[in-house]
Write a structure and sequence with these properties.
This protein is of the alpha+beta class. The protein is built from seven helices and six strands, in the order ααααααββββββα. The chain has two domains: 135 residues, no CATH class; 119 residues, Roll (SH3 type barrels). Strands 1, 2, 3, 4, 5 and 6 form a six-stranded antiparallel beta sheet that branches. Strand 1 and strand 2 form a beta hairpin. The N and C termini lie far apart (62 Å).
Length: 270
């Protein structure tokens, strides 16, 4: 039983750091591009969790001390009213329990539990805030380079990366290309794109140059015209062996929701 209680106490102490790691991993996982494989050992995870937990508990201790001092000052300003004894800092109570090993009454356990919940909500709020986005905006820890600037970073800040992938499947001057939302990008050790996956893509023919007398779409100035768009749907993953070029255009997710309402989600994105 003491070993079980000690393990539970350790988890509760490290809970803010563990929640921070889990929330960060969840947020990065929804970025629209997968980072290259990185070493994440148990030691490094514990070190990060301990540092975050210590900083969070220290800030919680400061906030609790400030709240208690303010309550004592208000109590001293009205000496005729007796509100009872000043409560102890919740973290001091936790420390006494861990060092003394004595059980805490239910009434005294409410304050440490409430402080722990506030710390967790504060961490989650910070990780979901614009301040955290600004703090990490220019950082490319995994060395993604082009993918980070055009896919990962826009996707983490409310934009949908629309990818145009031109393949090497050619017949004369015509080739096959795909257009859709980038949902996954695999990279090699040097940052090269190994594969890219598009959600609900369109498939179309592209032509290098333009044939006289035939209607064409696209930008004439680029020397590439498009023909015969066909909605594919589902998910299409393309390997680097058949990819000739990738062009990404980031569009605000709110704008896409206005253009493509919920009841028309199965329609191609234009």
């Amino acid at each position: 039983m003491p070993l079980t209680l000690g393990f539970l106490a350790s988890v509760l102490i490290l809970l803010p750091g563990l929640v921070a790691l889990a929330a960060f991993n969840f947020r990065v996982g929804r970025a629209g591009a997968r980072r290259p494989e990185q070493q994440l050992t148990a030691i490094s995870a514990i070190v990060v969790a301990v540092i975050i937990s210590v900083m969070t508990h220290y800030l919680g201790w400061l906030v609790s001390e400030g709240a208690i001092d303010a309550a004592v000052a208000i109590h001293d300003a009205f000496p005729t009213i007796h509100w009872g004894e000043a409560p102890a800092n919740p973290l001091v109570t936790v420390y006494n329990v861990l060092t003394g090993g004595k059980p805490v009454p239910a009434g005294e356990a409410v304050a440490p539990a409430a402080l722990l919940a506030l710390e967790i909500f504060a961490i989650l709020g910070f990780l979901a805030s614009d301040s955290f986005d600004l703090f990490l905006e220019r950082l490319d820890w995994s060395g993604q380079g082009w993918v980070f600037q055009h896919i990962t970073r826009p996707a983490e800040n409310g934009y949908a990366p629309i990818g145009h992938v031109f393949t090497s499947t050619m017949s004369g001057s015509y080739g096959v290309a795909y257009k859709g939302v980038v949902i996954d990008t695999r990279q090699g050790a040097n940052g090269e794109v190994l594969s890219i996956a598009l959600a609900r893509p369109e498939r179309f023919l592209y032509e290098i140059g333009h044939s006289e007398g035939q209607p064409a779409g696209g930008d004439q100035a680029t020397g590439v015209t498009t023909h015969a768009k066909d909605y594919v749907g589902g998910v299409v993953q393309l390997d680097s062996r058949i990819i000739t070029n990738i062009v990404v255009h980031s569009i605000a997710q709110s704008l896409l929701e206005e253009i493509v309402p919920d009841e028309e989600q199965e329609e191609p994105i234009s």
